[in-house]
Amino acid sequence: MPKKIDHEERKVKILQTALKVFAREGYRDSNLSLIAAECGISRPTIYQYFKDKEQIYYYAVKLVTGRMFAKYADYAWNTEDPILIRITAICNDIVDMAKQYRNELTSLMDVMLQLKKEGMDFSDIIFRRTAKLHILFKRLLRIGISTGEVVFCDIAKITQHLVILLESFCFQLAFLDAFDAVGAKEVVSNYMTLLDPNNKGHLI
């Protein structure tokens, strides 16, 4: 009896292999034949999942961000934790996830840098993939201000600061061996004290 194929598992395996090939060979010199060979499948089989290597890359970004944001939205609206604790927990989990999947993150960043050299601008792509996080932070901050859990502030700017901070952590984690995840979480915690009415804006 033929073995039943888990198509989602195979798709993820193709994705992980492709990222390794991109990092090793360079995005321009990589192709589906090479990726298929390293996956142990035929080129026609890989076409059942992806039409080209660009689609593989965008699927990688979408897969990672999509799963994370669904998880955070579920937590944010199904807990009674204080607002600042919710925001802190989400930020800390992003750091933990980036650390756990450090190799994949580095491969994604490598491809991004390679494509940047070829003239591709990732600003719009990054914004679209983090849009849900922006919306989530804004909603939480708005609720926090209305309940008195968060000081009155420019919600758009604070959200931008948080996302830039997280993006910085991800870039550092991808390229710096000495990245301090614990220190990164302390930075988030200290930033939260500025938003806490009980701390009167003083860093701890």
Question: Which labels suit this protein?
Answer:
mainly alpha, elongated, 204 residues, Tetracycline Repressor, domain 2
How would you describe this protein?
By secondary structure, the chain is mainly α. It has a domain at about 60-200: Tetracycline Repressor, domain 2. It contains nine helices and no strands. The longest helix has 25 residues, at about 125-145. The mean pLDDT is about 85.
Radius of gyration: 20 Å
First-residue to last-residue Cα separation: 64 Å
Low-confidence parts: none
Shape label: elongated
Kindly report the oligomeric state of this protein: single chain
The helical percent reads: over 70%
CATH topology (level 3) name of the domain at 61-199: Tetracycline Repressor, domain 2
CATH C-level of the domain at 61-199: Mainly Alpha
Would you kindly provide a brief summary of this structure?
This protein is mainly alpha-helical.
Write the layout of secondary structure elements.
Layout lengths: L6 H19 L6 H8 L3 H4 L6 H24 L6 H18 L1 H16 L5 H25 L7 H21 L5 H15 L9
Helix pairs in contact: 1-2, 1-4, 1-6, 4-5, 4-7, 5-7, 5-8, 5-9, 6-8, 7-8
